[in-house]
Write a structure and sequence with these properties.
Strand content: 5-15%
CATH superfamily of the largest domain: Glutaredoxin
Largest sheet: 5 strands, mixed
Shape: globular
Distance between the termini: 53 Å
CATH architecture of the largest domain: 3-Layer(aba) Sandwich
Protein name: Thioredoxin
Radius of gyration: 21 Å
Family: Belongs to the thioredoxin family.
Organism: Skermanella stibiiresistens SB22
Number of strands: 5
GO molecular function: protein-disulfide reductase activity
Helix content: 55-70%
Structural class: alpha/beta
GO cellular component, one term: cytosol
Length: 308
């Protein structure tokens, strides 16, 4: 593979609407889609958070000074808790930066204005280089497509080549762990996850992979799908069997069917086993990622059940 980064692009393009408020429902459009062309800073805040009130204006000032090289979105976690929950945000203020549809940087807690400027400057450089990244995003996309198609060997090779050039590329590192999970090499996947460099360890991609590995290890103990379906047919209210069936389906890469079985448990008895089905769904969402189509669809179904 050739070098991943060539000469930077021509520079940022000024634009309007540099700073806006968003919601869980609009997150895809306001952040993920916009970040395809320009870095987007997401400020997670709440009205009761004192440090948020200090950090927010400094962020806005720095973003405005960048004149379109970056954009900023604010999300009130009291009114919109879903995305914050998927990113496992434990305290605020929390700031994430997205570029080309993935998290690339971030911090938690109050910052000095000089630190904020350095943070934004890094994003400006990243956005400038993003127009001509030497094929990095294409390589990541190709690896992800190969893994989704069941070709873990090809995906692993691509991710490995990326990491040779850019050892701290979180997307490639997480992708390589997913390849090990797909190959059912859970021991090496766990070793790689636990051995991640400090600058990568708290990245959202690795949080998602950790959930995926936990689920893979858990589902490895599930019984055969056919036997579980037969048992469930004899007693549709056997929630433990339905739960085991969901995990067996997940192990067979039948994600949507697995989600449907857990949703059915919630529909029949949402309090079963201390809401285990709902909690497992949340873990599924973490493993799939907040922008996955199945995550978005299943969250809507879950909300419909819980609030009906």
């Amino acid at each position: 593979m050739q070098t991943m980064f060539n000469a930077p692009g021509a520079g940022p393009k000024p634009g309007a609407d540099l700073i806006k408020d968003t919601t869980d429902q609009a997150f895809m459009a306001d952040v993920m889609e916009v970040s395809r062309t320009v870095p987007v800073i997401v400020d997670f805040w709440a009205p009761w958070c004192g440090p948020c009130k200090q950090l927010g204006p400094m962020l806005e000032k720095t973003v405005n000074a960048a004149k379109g090289a970056v954009k900023m979105v604010k999300i009130n976690i009291d009114e919109n808790p879903q995305i914050a929950g998927q990113l496992r945000i434990q305290s605020i203020p929390a700031v994430y930066a997205f570029f080309q549809g993935r998290p690339v940087d971030g911090f938690v807690g109050a910052q000095q204005e000089s630190q904020i400027k350095q943070f934004v400057d890094r994003l400006i450089k990243l956005g400038g280089a993003g127009a001509d990244d030497g094929g990095l995003q294409e390589a990541l996309d190709a690896a992800a497509q190969a893994l989704e198609a069941g070709d873990a060997a090809t995906a692993s090779d691509i991710y490995g080549q990326i990491l040779e050039v850019e050892p701290t590329n979180v997307a490639a590192y997480a992708g390589l762990i997913r390849c090990l999970i797909a190959a059912e090499d859970h021991t090496r996947a766990r070793q790689m996850l636990d051995g991640a460099a400090p600058e990568m360890a708290k990245a959202p991609e690795l949080a998602a992979v950790r959930s995926a590995l936990d689920l893979a290890e858990q589902s490895a103990a599930a019984g055969p799908v056919g036997d579980l379906m037969d048992k469930l047919a004899r007693d549709p209210n056997d929630h433990q069997t339905r739960f085991d069936l969901a995990m067996a389906l997940y192990a067979s890469n039948k994600r949507e069917e697995a989600v449907d079985e857990l949703l059915e448990i919630v529909r029949r008895d949402r309090e079963w086993n201390e809401q285990q089905a709902r909690k497992q769904l949340v873990k599924f969402f973490e493993a799939f990622g907040p922008t996955d189509k199945l995550t978005l669809m299943a969250r809507r179904k879950l909300s419909s059940i819980l609030f009906s």
